[in-house]
Automatic annotation (TrEMBL):
InterPro entries: Iso_Racemase_Enz_sf, MaiA/AMDase, Maleate_isomerase. It catalyses: maleate = fumarate. Catalyzes cis-trans isomerization of the C2-C3 double bond in maleate to yield fumarate. HAMAP family: Maleate_isomerase (MF_00943). Pfam families: Amdase (PF17645). One of its GO terms (molecular function) is maleate isomerase activity. This is Maleate isomerase. It comes from Embleya hyalina.
Length: 265
């Protein structure tokens, strides 16, 4: 039997206050129905405004964070900025995951790496979603970057809402209970799933299951997909109550996409 909790490392933007609440909340809920226990550890990259310039500078700092977290001998790392990865070029989540895993290996503490960008892609493929509707807090050009990135991975975005919130703390302050109404206004009838938050800084966990009931289809977020991939990277069944269809248990043993070098579908 494992003698200590699984250590979950998170690489987060300096202004992110949501990933360190939603990921623990999901895994604490899992602890009520499963024996595994988790602790949470973070390293921060400087970023206050979601602009291409700040995102690129921040991504360059992610190697330092991976080394710092591997000093703590974490069991898995999560890179918690979806648009930072997607703005670096199509398919970049594979490059980032491989490079950051390499930093942990060089530091003598190898650990799998999950990016929220790669997790969203893999989570949507896991539930068989080829067409989606999407809500994002980003300015319109960055939201279009997300749409293009998903398209390159074989996921067509039928409709989207760009909330155009430039300040990252304001993104965190957005009321998640507004999201089901926003999603319901999208053209989602032909969508296989709805991405309620394509951003790990915009809270959505409290609204996931309500949105599924209202929209009548699977609803995911970048954070929910990240937890699914973290659990699979740890070779643990990926389920947790209160986090929607992806973590319902239906995909508990789906293969992990973490660190995959394969091309998108």
């Amino acid at each position: 039997m494992r003698q200590h909790p699984y250590r979950v490392g998170q690489i987060v933007p300096s202004s992110n206050v949501t990933m360190e609440t939603e990921v623990p909340a999901i895994l604490r809920a899992r602890e009520t129905v499963a024996p595994e226990r988790f602790t949470f550890h973070s390293s921060r990259m400087r970023m206050t405004h979601v602009t291409p310039e700040q995102l690129a500078a921040m991504d360059a700092d992610s190697d330092r964070c991976a080394v710092e977290l591997s000093d703590a001998r974490v069991d898995v790392l999560g890179y918690a900025c979806l648009v930072a990865i997607m703005s670096m070029g199509l398919g970049y989540h594979r490059v980032s995951e491989e490079r950051l895993h390499g930093r942990t290996v060089e530091n003598g503490a190898p650990a799998p790496v999950v990016t929220s960008a790669g997790a969203l892609v893999h989570g949507l493929h896991t539930i068989g979603a080829r067409k989606v509707a999407l809500v994002a807090p980003y300015m319109l050009p960055l939201t279009r970057t997300v749409v293009e990135y998903l398209g390159h991975e074989g996921i067509e975005v039928l409709d989207f809402e760009a909330l155009e919130i430039p300040d990252n703390l304001d993104v965190a302050a957005h009321d998640p209970l507004r999201l089901p109404d926003i999603a319901d206004r999208l053209e989602h009838a032909d969508a296989d799933a709805v991405v309620l938050s394509a951003c790990v800084q915009m809270p959505s966990l409290a609204a996931i299951e309500d949105a599924e009931q209202r929209l009548g289809k699977p609803v995911v977020s970048a954070a929910v997909c990240t937890v699914h991939q973290m659990l699979r990277a740890l070779d643990l069944p990926a389920f947790a109550p209160g986090a929607g269809h992806l973590l319902s248990g239906a995909f508990a043993d789906a293969p992990s996409g973490a660190g995959s070098a394969a091309a998108g579908a």
